[in-house]
UniProtKB/TrEMBL annotation:
<keyword id="KW-0732">Signal</keyword>
<keyword id="KW-0768">Sushi</keyword>
<feature type="domain" description="Sushi">
    <location>
        <begin position="954"/>
        <end position="1014"/>
    </location>
</feature>
<feature type="domain" description="Sushi">
    <location>
        <begin position="880"/>
        <end position="949"/>
    </location>
</feature>
<dbReference type="Pfam" id="PF00084">
    <property type="entry name" value="Sushi"/>
</dbReference>
<dbReference type="Pfam" id="PF13205">
    <property type="entry name" value="Big_5"/>
</dbReference>
<keyword id="KW-0325">Glycoprotein</keyword>
<dbReference type="InterPro" id="IPR000436">
    <property type="entry name" value="Sushi_SCR_CCP_dom"/>
</dbReference>
<dbReference type="InterPro" id="IPR050350">
    <property type="entry name" value="Compl-Cell_Adhes-Reg"/>
</dbReference>
<keyword id="KW-0677">Repeat</keyword>
<dbReference type="InterPro" id="IPR015915">
    <property type="entry name" value="Kelch-typ_b-propeller"/>
</dbReference>
<dbReference type="InterPro" id="IPR032812">
    <property type="entry name" value="SbsA_Ig"/>
</dbReference>
<protein>
    <recommendedName>
        <fullName>Sushi domain-containing protein</fullName>
    </recommendedName>
</protein>
<dbReference type="InterPro" id="IPR035976">
    <property type="entry name" value="Sushi/SCR/CCP_sf"/>
</dbReference>
<keyword id="KW-1015">Disulfide bond</keyword>
<feature type="domain" description="Sushi">
    <location>
        <begin position="816"/>
        <end position="875"/>
    </location>
</feature>
């Protein structure tokens, strides 16, 4: 037995104590050696949990810091941190259990935060104890990294796993930490509730599916195409199921031609909850044929392994329409002469939708391409606005490709004979435009019926750019004539920007909110002079447009139903991958704003999806299918929030939203618990401070300890609460479970990897491991035996069960390289993440002028961790890789590429501190060093310490001639001196002498010129 750490000593401890005498004596063990460089065993541990896995390996979960530690030998001398972050909330004193197959289970504890008080955290040594946590987590067996293989939810609330029929007061348990938790030797979980000492039992889950999930709903929530639908030939068929599925037998998915009985070559795939059957390239669905998607029993299954049975197939029919639309007319007409602000209008023999092609308008230069998706389409007409500035006098030809538009059945334009062509000419420069603008199309269409009574905008497309005439030029008021029952006609002043606006060739008219209040026939009249083109031409006549409107629809869509059904109280039966079906009162589509949110009532995973953009939301008619991209949390209850306005009906009426209390579902946990019927069989076998043994169902302290003895009896040691003197006596209870002990097997020791360094790729490995599983606990009392690889039972301790082998993952360096390791160096810690020991690197950053000798390199240290290779890189001054810049008066012979300094380059760098020779021009010398001693010195920034060339001095003045004196203010190169004669004498020769050189040799010494005579 082991004790570790402490929670009473404020200084804390991480000493591991061991007893081999049932606690009669305890021995402290030396601190273990961490097998991961830079990751040290902590000096204190509080609020942790620990368990022995496989009969010998001690695993510690530090849920305060978010770490998992596993001891790697039976003597507890070495340890490795197998996880450095955990997905669940920080907590104090959870319970850690290990199943006979090595899985880890973590239960409850107290939250580190949320205890009130000073605002601190109990886990950090301040604050108060946080609220109880009732969740359960699972980590799969990993022979190399126990607890490091990831953690998943078992249930967000242990009480959610209690069968509702066995305990009427389950609601009281949902916020209660069990008084004690223990795992029997047959892997049954036993939880003892504080209130009344109720004992709940359940089998630990061996899979990631709810324990009670035993059915698969065979009826899809949505079929696309729908049952009995008549549709264009689809590229795929989709079935949306109520939970995540997987293909079990792809051959059992068949798309049948009901006329020939042949199987159409389609490929089935699964995208979480959707079975998608996509058409292969050669497959053709024929017009007028009926098809059926058939799913054989067992062809698909849910994530719990429940197979599809008795699928009700449905038929769909491919439309008869296989003929594409024909082009009837093109504007401008062939050989027309038009204004530069013209438009292009195409008229077809049926309604069309935008395709993916480009309309080509070709003149003398590069063709102009107009994207089909940018055209305005109303019914069978398509309107293209042209860029401004078509060349005057230029002839243009319109070309219409087959993919420009499609009909409602997705048929392309007919080819090769698409229809009439058009070649038109733009008015020549200086030619006046006398053609008035013409109405080309409108929305709603002239003569249309069934127009929405909520219409607020009229749009009219003309043959060229239009403008609203000035009010002083005449009548500019349009009139909307309404049915008699609707009252007087409405004046629409076009000069008002709140009523009318023009955009190129388009006129938009905004209608008052009450303009369309009655069903009936409406007529729009626009005076001839109200609109003009760029040349000032008005309409040829008054414009009239008539349409028939329905009564306005002002009722917003409402939510009729939710699948799965709303739960007034959680029942915890839905699978984690459950799909939601929301049915509205009328067909809806996304409004462009708003979310669907699944909000957990506890600590579970939340999901938010944008209706307009999420691929996990499907809108079909009056239904919205919400398929969360991740599993919802087992054992969690969710409220479903729908934003106001997230969908709208065909008239634009927005959905009113929902509140959290309106829609609720709950998710099944991964285990199921039942209450033991023999509650009275808890024998109170201990005494405390003179109390006598009693029977009944006490209220238990939450500080109980629990364990199973060799006979699989549950032993509880602790206290009950509510004693008369306020002191709780220590009491022991015993529960005879009458359960057998399962055989358990495990590896004898931690696996050894076959390599000492990583190799390979995608990903690199440390070789492989192979180890023997042997029995460490025999079965008894009818418990389950271990089975060897041949399927034969084995049960003796030490007997071989089978081998376990696999790849050893390449370890990583988990901590930053040491730093700074040299001057002018730093290590970037801002975005550090673990680095692979397969020669993974982390950079060393140097200050300007210094360069690293290389990066830090991670290499294998132990199988569990890497270490940074030594010696560590350092920052060294950068060499000079370019010649020094010339200084004034430097001699060119020392600057060319053949010179010592001029030869410096990337291929021939000059080391830091090294020098190259510099010479000055004749008459100059290097400052500070003297003649012939000039040097450029390479400094630490890849630059040079330079010397200046300064003028030399003339060393001696010429001897003065008789009757003369020489006046020299300076003796430096270039200076001049005056030769002055005594009174009565005059100069013959040079009256001025100069300090100058007579040689071109570098650094030649200057001298004064000869003076004249007096």
């Amino acid at each position: 037995a082991f004790l570790l750490g402490g929670q009473c000593d404020g200084n804390g401890t991480s000493t591991l104590w061991r007893t081999c005498s049932a606690g009669a004596s305890w021995m402290p063990m030396p601190p273990p050696r961490s097998l991961v460089t830079g990751v040290a065993w902590p000096t204190s541990l509080v609020g942790h949990a620990m368990v022995i896995v496989g009969g010998w390996q001690l695993v510690v979960v530090d849920a305060v810091r978010g770490h998992v530690w596993a001891f790697e030998d039976r003597n507890m001398t070495s340890v490795v941190r197998t996880a450095d972050h955990l997905p669940f909330a920080r907590r104090w004193a959870p319970t850690l259990l290990a199943s006979s197959d090595g899985q880890l289970f973590l239960l409850g504890g107290r939250a580190c935060e949320g205890g009130g008080g000073s605002g601190g955290s109990l886990c950090d040594g301040s604050g108060q104890m946080g609220p109880p946590l009732t969740d359960i987590w699972k980590s799969p067996y990993d022979p190399l990294l126990p607890g490091g293989g990831g953690w998943t939810w078992v249930t967000a609330n242990w009480a959610a796993a209690v069968a509702s029929t066995s305990a009427p007061d389950i609601a009281a348990l949902t916020s209660e930490v069990p008084a004690a938790v223990a795992l029997a030797r047959d892997d049954t979980l036993h939880l003892v509730a504080r209130q009344g000492g109720m004992v709940f039992v359940g089998q630990l889950p061996s899979s990631d599916s709810p324990a009670m999930d035993t059915t698969f709903a065979a009826t899809p929530q949505l079929r696309q195409p729908g049952a009995g639908a008549v549709v264009p030939a689809p590229e795929r068929v989709d079935l949306h199921f109520s939970e995540a599925i997987r293909l079990r037998n792809p051959r059992g998915v068949r798309l049948m031609d009901l006329i020939t009985g042949a199987v159409v070559p389609f490929t089935p795939t699964v995208q979480r909850q959707v079975l998608r059957v996509e058409r292969q390239q050669a497959a053709q669905l024929l017009a007028g044929r009926q098809y059926r998607l058939e799913l054989a029993d067992g062809s698909i299954e849910d994530m719990a392994g429940n197979q599809l049975r008795s699928f009700a197939a449905s038929n769909f029919t491919v439309e008869q329409d296989t003929s594409g639309p024909s082009l009837l007319a093109v504007y401008p007409a062939d050989e027309a002469v038009v204004a530069p602000q013209t438009v292009i209008m195409l008229t077809f023999d049926e309604d069309v939708v935008n395709g993916d092609g480009f309309l080509e308008l070709k003149g003398s230069g590069e063709p102009l391409l107009l994207r089909a998706r940018e055209a305005s389409v109303v019914g069978s007409q398509a309107h293209f606005e042209l860029p401004k500035g078509l060349a005057a006098g230029q002839r243009y030809t319109v070309t219409v490709p087959e993919d420009l538009f499609l009909d409602r059945s997705r048929n392309r334009l007919r080819v090769p004979s698409i229809g009439p062509s058009s070649s038109f000419t733009v008015l020549a420069s200086g030619t006046s435009d006398a053609t008035p603008p013409v109405l080309m199309m409108s929305s709603p269409e002239d003569g249309s019926t069934g127009v929405s009574g909520g219409l607020r905008l009229l749009k009219l497309w003309f043959s060229e750019d239009i403008f609203i005439a000035r009010a002083e030029d005449g009548n500019t008021d349009a009139i909307l004539e309404r049915p008699v029952t609707a009252g007087l006609s409405i004046k629409l002043p076009l000069v008002s920007s709140s009523v009318a606006s023009t955009h190129g060739s388009v006129l938009e008219l905004s209608l008052p909110s009450d303009a369309m209040g009655t069903a009936g026939t409406y007529r729009l009249r626009v005076p001839a002079g109200a609109l003009v083109d760029g040349a000032g031409n008005g309409l040829a006549a008054n414009l009239f447009m008539t349409f028939n409107a329905d009564a306005p629809d002002v009722d917003p869509p409402s939510l009729l139903s939710l699948l799965p059904d709303f739960e007034p109280s959680p029942v915890y039966q839905q699978p984690p991958s459950t799909t939601l079906v929301l049915t509205f009162s009328e067909p809806v589509h996304a409004s462009g704003r708003g979310q669907v949110r699944l909000v957990p009532l506890g600590l579970g995973r939340a999901v938010s999806l944008e209706v307009a953009t999420s691929p996990h939301i499907t809108l079909a008619g009056n239904q919205m299918i919400v398929a969360p991209p991740v599993d919802l949390t087992p054992g969690e209850a969710y409220s479903i929030e729908l934003d106001q306005g997230l969908v709208q009906d065909a008239r634009g009426n927005l959905f009113g939203g929902s509140t959290a209390a309106t829609l609720r579902i709950s998710i099944a946990p991964m285990l199921q618990l039942r209450e033991l019927s023999q509650r009275a069989s808890l024998d109170l076998g201990g005494t405390g401070r003179g109390s006598e043994p009693t029977s009944g169902s006490p209220t238990l302290s939450s500080a109980l300890s629990a364990a199973f003895d060799a006979a699989n009896r549950l032993i509880l040691i602790g206290s009950s609460s509510g004693t008369a003197d306020g002191v709780s006596p220590a009491v022991a209870w015993r529960l005879d479970t009458k359960r057998g002990t399962h055989c358990a097997s495990a590896l004898e020791e931690s696996p050894k990897c076959s390599q000492t360094s990583c190799s390979g790729s995608s990903p690199p490995t440390l070789g492989s491991f192979a180890a023997q599983r042997r029995v460490w606990r025999s079965s008894s009392n009818g418990g389950r035996s271990c089975m060897n690889e041949e399927g034969a039972p084995v049960d003796r301790v030490g007997e071989a069960v089978g081998s376990l082998s696999g790849s050893c993952p390449c370890p990583q360096c988990f901590v930053l390289p040491p730093g700074p390791v040299s001057q002018n160096a730093s290590v970037d810690a801002g975005n550090f993440s673990a680095v692979s020991a397969a020669e993974g690197v982390w950079p060393l950053t140097c200050t300007q002028g210094f360069a690293p000798t290389g990066p830090f390199v991670c290499q294998t240290d132990e199988i569990f961790g890497g270490a940074w290779r030594q010696p560590y890189p350092v920052c060294k001054p950068q060499p000079c890789t370019e010649p020094p810049r010339m200084v004034p008066y430097q001699d060119l012979s020392t600057a060319g590429t053949e010179s010592e300094c001029g030869n410096v380059s990337h291929r021939s760098p000059l080391a830091h501190g090294a020098t190259c020779t510099m010479r000055c021009q004749a008459g100059y010398m290097p400052h500070g060093t003297g003649l012939g001693q000039g040097r450029f010195v390479c400094q630490g920034y890849g630059k040079y310490d330079v010397q200046a060339c300064i003028p030399q001095v003339c060393q001696e003045l010429p001897d003065a001639q008789p009757n003369a004196i020489i006046h020299c203010p300076s003796d430096r190169l270039g200076s001049e001196c005056q030769v002055l004669c005594d009174p009565g004498f005059e100069i013959v020769g040079n009256s001025t002498i100069r300090c100058e050189v007579t040689s071109a040799m570098p650094e030649a010494v200057p001298a004064f010129t000869a003076p004249g005579r007096c």
